[in-house]
Design brief:
alpha/beta; Neutral endopeptidase, domain 2; Collagenase (Catalytic Domain); 3 domains; 25 helices
Length: about 650
């Protein structure tokens, strides 16, 4: 059955594909579709995620039943999954507990005496799932990919981005943020919540002034700053790093709880943070940290706190009218705690071996198409081409699910304490991450769950990953036309491979290290093409946001991924059909482009569209679909001409790979 059979009722045949491929494929659907009340957007991506959620709910329900019926009381993963889910669903117990489960953290904030106390508290808070002045994570070393390092990244903001604190167009959101903080603090027992909310906004604003702009944070060279522990302390001397590390887990730098080496992504932010720490009275920090504690705990506390959080982060920022049903939030909670245990069951039921075999073939054809395309590039020298081939040869595809699922035996959960379970799951993950430091790099680890509707490229391990969740219609179907699969998952595969050759990924070699493998002239030619794509996207204005424009510098990596992904998918389709001895018609090739536009069928609420335009490195869906304006192949099969909406003069078309 054709995938496009599902798309045709939503097509607008009054819009010519030559003028607007996205509108042609999706115009009627966009006009007639109502976004579900508990969603901020709708389309194939979200629909597949909803279906996966339903599938996971069935798995959890069955596991819970089997755990309860077993002779040993259901020890092991099934019992833990049941306890996690049931503790979330027991609303009566949650309401009866009130705010008491968060009281130890609230008391901890109230007892902060100085900045050293603050650092110690932050380590304890982050260990159990909280967040504070910066982000921290463990990842491979960008210049020595066979080892793990601790990483620090700018953070501390309650709003999505530093621009929300300085741009006048977000003034109403700032006002709503103060209202949210006032309500939150009142529910947390603060005796002067309105004044405290204003102080928190002012402190947030101070922190935001030290943030790098979103596009700047993409630069993998500028954000690689390897420091010793002493250098980190000198950079941000007002923060007690030893106290922080000790309470975080004591595993970051070894048994003595010190930081031996750390990568700091935005060092000037930590320098700025040190000044803010010194200048801000501890009383203000108590208010600030209380708001973070309450926000972090709110999803697991009373309905009043849940609603307060949702009113701002759901309704105001994303435009979503209705909170998701409790069972849906419970599913997300279980997946966050034991996602791979659930995923193991998911793939057994929903990912047949035939799909994996077909995906192996698709990936092989995409890699062959990249090799073919690179061989024909007129702007790249043979020297750099050889190095590009070497990188392609080391790409590691991961399809469907991990070879080895995660061991949750050390996770301890209980049937009747939701907050304790949330903190236990977070602490388990903190220990798992910190234990990586000093250990061999696990190249079999997955960074997405099998049931996730998405895909990724990881430059540090040079791998492309396609979870089972995305390997469904309209992206992929064993029964679909080959052109449809190549226009769907084929372009997604090409996109993820393309990240290995986008403006940042191209700086990594096949071993996952930042290593300049380009000749000077080739690098300059690549930058010219990247800048042309930036300029092109800077000129795009979303149809629903008058006066706004896409940020070409922020989105250039994803745009290069889309451009290369679709171009290479088309080439791979021709390779596949040629190998099979089939003839490729113009209609077949049109089908590939039509399904490409169909997978981007998305409708968003205006609030989310505004937020994503500010912070999302992906372009709005309409411009992702209409990147076809740059492909000679699109113009050929659809017979475009000057004056058409998607017409670009051949000299103005950007073609990189």
């Amino acid at each position: 059955m054709s995938i496009l059979d599902d798309a045709r009722p939503g097509m607008d045949l009054d819009i010519r594909p030559q003028d607007d491929l996205f509108g042609h494929v999706n115009g009627t659907w966009l006009t007639e579709t109502e976004i579900p009340s508990d969603r901020s957007s709708w389309g194939p991506f979200v629909q597949l995620a909803d279906q996966a959620e339903e599938d996971v709910r069935a798995i959890i329900t069955e596991l819970a039943a089997s755990a309860g019926e077993s002779a040993d009381g259901g020890n092991g993963d099934a019992r833990k999954i049941a306890d996690l889910f049931n503790s979330f669903m027991d609303l009566d117990r949650v309401e009866a507990a009130g705010i008491a489960p968060a009281q130890p953290l609230i008391d901890g904030v109230a007892g902060l005496r100085d900045v050293r106390d603050l650092a110690a508290f932050l380590g304890e808070f982050e260990r159990i799932g909280g967040y504070g002045l910066f982000g921290s994570y463990v990842d491979t070393d960008d210049r020595q990919s066979d080892r793990y390092l601790f990483h620090l990244v700018q953070g501390g903001l309650g709003l999505p981005d530093e621009s929300y604190y300085r741009d006048e167009k977000f003034a109403e959101i700032r006002e709503a943020y103060v209202g949210y903080l006032t309500r939150l603090l009142a529910l947390g027992g603060h005796d002067a919540p309105a004044a405290a909310a204003q102080r928190i906004l002012a402190l947030d604003t101070e922190l935001a002034q030290g943030h790098w702009e979103r596009a700047e944070t993409r630069d993998v060279q500028k954000t690689y700053n390897l420091l010793t522990g002493d250098e980190l302390k000198a950079l941000c001397p007002a923060f007690d790093w030893d106290a922080y590390v000790t309470n975080l887990g004591g595993r970051v730098g070894g048994e003595h709880a010190t930081i031996a080496e750390v990568v700091v992504r935005q060092p000037s932010y930590l320098e700025h943070l040190s000044g803010v720490l010194e200048a801000t009275p501890i009383e203000v920090w108590r208010d600030w940290f209380l708001s973070r504690v309450l926000r972090s705990a709110a999803p697991y506390l009373t309905d009043e706190l849940v609603q307060a959080n949702f009113d701002f982060y759901g309704r105001t920022l994303s435009g979503t009218p209705e909170l998701r049903a409790r069972w849906k939030r419970a599913v997300a909670f279980v997946e966050g705690a034991m996602g791979e245990a659930v995923g193991k069951e998911y793939v057994a039921r929903h990912f047949p071996p035939t799909s994996k075999a077909m995906m192996d073939e698709l990936v092989a054809n995409l890699l062959a198409a990249y090799r073919q395309s690179i061989s024909k590039l007129d702007w790249m020298t043979d020297e750099t081409k050889e190095r590009a081939y070497d990188k392609l040869a080391t790409f590691r595809p991961k399809i469907g699910y991990p070879e080895r699922f995660r061991d949750y035996s050390a996770l301890v959960v209980v049937p009747d304490d939701l907050v304790a379970n949330a903190q236990a799951a977070a602490g388990f993950e903190t220990d798992r991450q910190l234990a990586k430091i000093g250990s061999p790099v696990d190249r079999d680890e997955w960074f997405m769950l099998p049931q996730t509707v998405n895909a990724y490229y990881n430059p540090g391990t040079n791998e492309i990953c396609f979870p089972a969740g995305i390997l469904q219609r309209p992206f992929f179907s064993p029964d679909a036309l080959a052109a449809e699969n190549y226009g769907g998952i084929g372009a997604v595969i090409g996109h993820e491979v393309g990240h290995g050759f986008d403006d940042q990924g191209a700086q990594y070699d096949g071993d996952g290290n930042l290593n300049d493998w380009w000749t000077t002239d080739d690098k300059a030619a690549f930058e010219v093409k990247s800048k042309a794509l930036i300029a092109q996207y800077d000129g795009f204005a979303p149809r629903n946001l008058p006066g706004e424009h896409v940020n070409g510098a922020l989105t250039v990596g994803e745009n290069i991924g889309d451009l290369g992904g679709l171009t290479i998918a088309h080439t791979a389709y021709l390779i596949a059909e040629g190998a099979a001895g089939g003839a490729v018609s113009t209609e077949d090739r049109k089908t590939l482009f039509l399904n490409w536009a169909y997978v981007w069928r998305t409708k968003r609420r205006l609030e989310q569209e505004q937020q994503y335009l500010t912070i999302d490195p992906h372009s709005p869906p309409e411009f992702r679909a209409n990147i076809v304006r740059n492909l000679d192949e699109f113009h050929e099969v659809f017979g475009t001409a000057p004056g058409d909406g998607l017409w670009l003069e051949p000299a103005d078309r950007v073609r990189i790979w």
